[in-house]
Amino acid sequence: MPPKTKTHSLARVEAEAHGLDTLVRCYWREIAAPAGLVQINAAAYPGYPGLSPCPLAPHRPYVAVISMPHVQATILAPLDRHPHIGIPDVDRYWLRRRNSCEPLNWKTFADLLLRELSAHFGQLPAAELREQLGLSVDVSTMILASRRPQGVDLGDPDQAYIQSEQSLLRGHPYHPTPKARSGLLDSDLTTYSPEVGAKFSLHYFAVKRDAMVQHSILAADAQTLIAAEGPSHLLSDPSWALIPVHPWQAGYLLGLESVKAALQPGAGQLLRYLGAYGPEFSPTASVRTLFASSSRFFYKTSLSFRITNCLRRNALPELAGALRISSIMRDLKIELSEHFPSFYPLEEQAYLSVCLPSTDESERRKVTEGFGLMLRETIEAKRQVGEVCLVAAALFGNAGGGRGLIRRLLATASARYPQLPRLDLAKRWFAAYLEQLIGPLIYLYNQAGIMFEPHLQNIVVGFADGWPRAVYLRDYENARLVASRLKPRLALSLSREEQEELLYPEDKAELRFTYCLFTNHIHEAVRQLSYACPEIEADLWDLVRVELGRCLRRFPSAHPTSLLEGLLKGRPFPAKTNLITRFTAGKDALASYVPIGSPWRQNAEYHARTQSAASGQLPRALA
Question: Could you say which DSSP state residue 384 is in?
Answer without folding.
Answer: P
